[in-house]
Amino acid sequence: MIDIQNVSMAFGKRSILEDVNLTFKPGTISAITGKSGAGKTTLLGIISGLLRPDTGKVLFKGQNILRWGDLKRSRYRNREIGFVFQFFNLLSDNTSYQNIIYPALISPMRGDFDLDKEVRDLASYLNIEEVLHNYPSTLSGGERQRVAVARAIINKPKIILADEPTGNLDDLSAKGILSLFKRLRDESDICLIIVTHDPRIVEFADFHYHLHNAHLVKMKGSTTGTKKTASRKPDTEKKKTAKYPAVKVRAGAR
Amino acid sequence: MKNIIHRIFLSFKLSSQDTVKNILKSLISSFGILFLISFLVLYVSLRDSVKNYVDKNIFGTLSIDEIRVTPKMAKQMDIFATSQSSSGIRGGVVAYIKKMPEVKKAFTLVQMSNKSYIRGELMGKRQKVFMPLGSIENDFFLDRDPKWRPIYTGDPLPLVAPRFAIDMLNNYLSMNGYPIIPPEGMSGFPIELTVQSTPADAPEKKEYKYSAVVHAVTDQLPFMGIIVPSDFIWKFMRDHAADAPEGMPEIRYVAMYVKVNDIKKLPEITDKIRALGVQVESQQDVAAKTNKALSIIDGSSLVIIGMFLILTVISIFNSYLTIVYNRSQKFSLRRVLGVPKSKIIFGFVCEAAFVGMLYGLAGYYAGNWLLGIATTHLVEWVPSLKGIVLSSSGPSVLFIAIGASAAISSLSALIPAVFASNMNLFKAIRK
Predict the structure, then answer these.
(1) Does A103 touch chain B (CB under 8 A)?
(2) B260 with B125, same domain?
(3) Which of A62, A85, B21, B264 is 20 to 30 A from B382, alpha carbon to alpha carbon?
(4) CA distance A235 to A226
């Protein structure tokens, strides 16, 4: 789905990434760990097209996103990528509902689907129906992060980039988010790339990469692609059990 | 389709709500524009008032960009003389002046050398008064009064009466204990006009009578006769050419009113026309003094406006930079979620332009309010400006105020908008 080839980046004389090669497959969770300042978030920035590496390529569906102009990269971020952040980053002046629909309204002409129904389905899927019309300041950390996840998947992205998604949550909320990620992986073909320090994420991730001294070291996962863990349901069963059927409807519509 | 329309509506609603909130927060940042626009309105009104004052009171009947050309050595009264020996401006000179590139418009006042009388009934008495006939282009009056109704030959023949005649009539009425007639009351007054087609001393006089009516009263021409439509004079001359002895001047160019393209070149053009052998009421000194006065008003006002402008731009720029910093998380988040740079810049600049427009409107009314105060107290502050009437500026200034204010505000916000679209997104989000 996304190939990172020979990517290197330095801030001044300090090398952040050196000759990084990496492939992310659909329906997998990849955990990226490393010390603070190791370059984990920089890597997310490069994958999303927000940062340009000094050298290398980032291929999405075979096209180098680094060659695209701002408009095309913005569209790629809007349609193909969902973001989840440590500090939720919800728009404080807008309700949960408005936060969730925001990415869908950036390109309002795209696809003939009922946005309101999508949000209701998502809210039901993420158990945030009760707080849809609340402002972020009135929500708990777990609820905010679930609203953020809803916002991340409203456009049915192919990739979710999560930057320390459990870093600001209590244990119970963190577990809720983790199980949500597992469900997303099991019930759709989304590729989750999670920058984390949380060993629980590393534990259930299909792949684990560690950034050390600007180099990426593979700690876990087969070299041939998607890792099917024992806990995951087969693809045929995915469709039957999907609690958020709109994911499939929209994926087909695009 | 219904869903798309719904999403467009939602998008519009959400961005409008957001914009309204942001605009309310941004209003204070652009407060300086209010002073700038108020001063601009004051300046424009003051300048217009001074120009109007000069137009009306210093140049008399001449516009500030106008020159009066009369025959050489002609005294003021020569214009009114009926003597056939008085020569007018030569036709060649008239044609040359009209073709000069520096000349915007030229109006020619012509006078028939034929003798003419008017006869009217006043207070039960029929009065017969000698009155020379002249004519000038309708545009001459239209330039001075846009509401002027042009005159053309018709039955009855429309006449434009000189103001002095009405004043004399009113003196007469007043002396006899009658109520005076205001100039506008003369409109429609019936008169019998008699025009002689032969010279005054011709052995056999030929006279033609016309029923006429007073069309309007004017004080724009120092012509002690009656103005008739130009086509009437030319037709009369053509129709009765056989009555006049050969070689007799029938029509004289008694004056020209020349409007110039560039008022600053007035002295130069005056000299050029004077060199043609005519007398020019140049008003050079007055024009030069007026130019100097206007230059001082322009210069000092532009310095003040410039200072206001610089301070305003710096203040708006700084305020918007602060706004960008405060809203950096929002901007970065939008960028991350897929809003292109151009849309961020456009939105921010539009927001600033809208704030600017609001201040432009407020500044216009504030300026006019200050003008009202100045109008009341100007004579107390500067007694020598007693004659100047400050009038509030019209809708054109309102549009200028709104446009200028929007432009200043959006230009000042442009660089902060570019900063907003280029900030370190992940760093801002992690704040």
Answers:
(1) yes
(2) yes
(3) B264
(4) 13
